[in-house]
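Just wondering, does anyone understand what follows?

——
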Amino acid sequence: MAGEHGEVSMERRRDDRRATEERQVSDMSSRPEQEREVTALGRSLDLVVYGIGQSVGGWWAERDVAASVRQVTFEDDVVYRAHYDFSPTRLADRSYEVVRPAYLVGHIAGTNPAYEGQSFEMIERDLRTGWTDEIRAKHGEWDAVRGYAKEAFARQRQRILRVSGEHRRVTSERPAMDGQASD
């Protein structure tokens, strides 16, 4: 009898876990692809951002940087993974998951308003400061992964330019649609 109760209990827990996972997948798939956020970004990324914040200060040290991290979507992650998988500089001994913090720190840097109009090379020193010995041991030397950070930085800057261009276009067209001449 006790064995049966244990088996029923284990089976019930398995069913509950399966139902929870199915509900999470269902909830996730009901959101548009570009709105889905990547949630588990990892301790390594936290350490890189913290290191940059400690060294550089300013925007990097603010709590709002965490909000920038949440702007990494599954679409972004898929694009970065594909970039890595097909990159001629792909590291043979490292998976995407290992170099992912480089992409993500570049992505986050692309949202930093202080970097507006600056090239990756101009802001790279800040990113390099967060790439500590602990991060290097786990994710590779900065020089080996910098191209991945650069790719993500460029992608995010392009997105911001595209969105701000759309905003300018919409706001400049609005007076014309109201029957007024635009500036």
Remarks:
- The chain is about 70% helix and 0% strand.
- Residues 34-177 form one domain.
- The radius of gyration is 22 Å.
- Residues 76 and 181 are 39 Å apart (CA to CA).
